[in-house]
Amino acid sequence: MDSAPITSLGKYRVETTLGAGAMGVVYRAFDPHIERRVALKTIRNELFDSGERASLMARFRNEAQAAGRLSHPNIVAVYDYGEADGTAYIAMEYVDGRSLEAFLRAGEPLDLHTALDWFTQLLAALAYAHEHGVVHRDIKPANLLVTTRGQLKVTDFGIAHIESSTLTVVGSVVGTPSYMAPEQFCGDSVDGRSDLFSAAVVLYQMLTGQRPFAGPPASVMQQVLRATPPRPTQRNPALPAALDAVLMRALSKERAARYQTPAELRAALVEALNGVSSHSTHSTFAEDDRTVLMAAAAGGTASSAFRPPPAPATVEKLPTVWPAGDLAAVQASLAAQVGPVARLLVARAAARAADLPTLSALLVPHIPSDKGRKQFADALSMLAEDASHGSLRTDTSQRPSQPPAAPRDGTSMSGSAPATSLTPEQIRAAALQLAVYLGPIAHLIVKREAPRALDLRMLQQRLADAISNDHDRASFLRVTGLRTD
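== non-specific serine/threonine protein kinase ==
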């Protein structure tokens, strides 16, 4: 490394330069008072004008305050904050290792067990930070350090949000585009679920070698807000198929549809790979928060936090014992709560269930809110009642005869607003059908389009036009009977 340009800062003896950027330099230094090696992160005040300096210094002090209140083995410790000779500095734990970004630079997926081991440590760090009122807001590979012993540590709390803090960061949109949650792009308030979205992006990249959202910032923003990324197994077929459902839910656009806590996300991963009950894994997570999970040494065994399935995973198919219409009704009800991932969840659960109550019991834990679980349970109760009289049916199974086709723009022949013949039941059923492909936003789209449609057929056609994915649109058209091939 190059020789350090300065020899000391405050009480610290500067040894060498670890890195440099536009805002300042990071040094390796030594604290002679307690004989400890540290990393000194610095900002040179004279490099910025007065207005920019105030904002930057507020962010720098925010980092010291946010990380300084956290003491956890998976978070880089902050020891001191000071200013000397026109330079502000933070003295923090010196980590002998590399950033996760360095491991991912080649664009190749990591070993499954290594990736899950490191991700478990990340979840432990986030759980601790969130419990102490700190939301990181910039979780990305560059801010995750991996020691030579395989211990992951979270660093750079520069734009962290601290509950009850008077410190602010200028600008309402903060973060790194490819890893930002939808609410960050919109300038909405952030909470722990925003960090979990970013963490899921990191896991996706570790498992596939690619980011789910990539490209210029404007394109990334549109993808994060509107597009559904390819399932992980599409990019890495060697992955267990069960991971698809977990990752796609973790990347949901709506916060309420995601996993609500790090413990819940970890439990879902363990259940997906081990078949372990969510309740049992949830109860042991508190202990994991206090335990550093180490990556396996060369030639050793992988972390016991996750074990591979006994045989290569295969894509599950809908069993013949379930009529397709029955599962379509269940899938539509679940999609209203969790979005497009409902297709994968229902397919997996149907392979393990022989009756509706068992199917319901397997699906309910995937719904994040109590209200959503009740709504789903109520919907399945209605389906069960239908089943007692025959096969399950969606509300669209008995359609009224369709009147002649009307103009596609939604107006009547006279040019006035359409006098719709849609019933509330038809509108609700259409929303459930669309939710299978678009998630919870389907209800907003149906609410917008229903007044513009003369009849059910016109509504379904307008909804099909709202589905950007060609495969999904074709599937929707076949389900609704608009396409028969």
